[in-house]
Give the backbone structure.
Amino acid sequence: MKRLMLIVTGSFMLSGCVAQQAVIPTNTYDFFAEDIVSKTRNGIDNIERFYAFFENVQSGKRDQVRIVEHTIEGDPIYVDVRHNNEQINLEIDNSEDAYSNGEVVSTTCNQLNAIEVGSRTDYYVSECSDDEQYIIFSDY
């Protein structure tokens, strides 16, 4: 009976250790299929989704997109862009960047523009409520 108790107790302890190893840190981000992930080893993931978003905004259609860029150290910066037929709501979240001030910028803008710079195109929002312009995406 003592031996059975030791085996049962040992099994519970081992299963507890296995469960502890399976815990995922809270600072990781689960990427979704619709996210545009910039600057990966393969270039840009889901770039077609951004082009569709740009066309929808130019056509006055409602749409939204999340762009995830990574710093040199690998920290994510999230750029959420929502178009509601009248304006563009922009949120830039640097809170997971170890070298930033952890700021989250939120503003509303009236225009989404594109400009060619050498071999890339920069997409930026302008006419923003904070009198700034923000480059939200570059297709390098």
User: Anything to note?
Assistant: The CA atoms of residues 33 and 46 lie 8 Å apart.
